[in-house]
Amino acid sequence: MRVYWTLFVVLLVVIDQVSKWMVETKLPFQQQVELIPFLSLFRTYNYGVAFSLLESLGQWPLVIMTICIIGFVIWLWHSVEAGRALSELGYACVIGGAIGNLIDRTWYGKVIDMILFHIDSLDFRFAVFNLADTFITIGAMAIIFDEILIWQRARKAQKEQDKEVQDG
């Protein structure tokens, strides 16, 4: 079954890279192109990690750090019992997104970002991000949600067991 998830990782990387190629070749640099009132395309570059953190480290330390993080997430993924579809989805999304950003960082020395949420009436602009970042966020939420479900099931089973002992 993990073969299918691995193919899903590859699919996410391809989607991310194609979207970045399209943005790089079609979208003007740092010019907002509104799609709907609160969502725009806005090509820019991130030389750090999320919210441009660690930008001062430079390209190669961030590449090495990203490779280490991908390795750790793969290790976590393999430590989860097979069949937990939500966790499997989550780990695949995190890894696919991380690989997508790793490719950018390795090839271009920066990550290509293009999605901008904004509320003009409040003069609010969220950090510009890309599909890889979206995959990572969705993946992290799926993993956390799955862990909460597992925890709730364990609590329920423990309560039932305690009740049986109490009644028995």
Structural features:
168 residues, alpha+beta, four-stranded antiparallel beta sheet, 4 helices
The major beta sheet can be summarized as: 4 strands, antiparallel
Which structural class do you get from the secondary structure elements? Answer: alpha+beta
Domain count: 1
Mean pLDDT: 92
**Cα gyration radius (Å):** 20 Å
The CA-CA distance between the termini, in Å, is 42 Å
Helix content: 55-70%
Low-pLDDT regions: none
Task: Indicate the proportion of strand residues.
Answer: 5-15%
Number of helices: 4
Spatial order of the strands in the main sheet?
A: 1-2-3-4
Instruction: Count every beta strand, where a strand is a DSSP E run of 2 or more residues.
Output: 4
What spatial form do the alpha-carbon principal axes imply?
elongated
Q: SSE string, helix = H, strand = E?
A: HEEHHEEH
Descriptive overview:
This protein is an alpha+beta fold. The protein has one domain (2-167). Helix content is 64%, strand content 14%. The protein is built from four helices and four strands. It has helices spanning 2-26, 59-79, 85-108, 131-167; strands at 33-36, 39-46, 111-119, 124-125. The chain has a four-stranded antiparallel β-sheet with strand order 1-2-3-4. α1 (2-26) runs parallel beside α3 (85-108), α2 packs antiparallel against α3 (85-108) and α3 (85-108) runs antiparallel to α4 (131-167). The longest helix is centred in the last third of the chain and has 37 residues, at 131-167. The radius of gyration is 20 Å and the shape is elongated. The chain starts with a helix and ends with a helix. The model has no long low-confidence stretch (mean pLDDT 92).
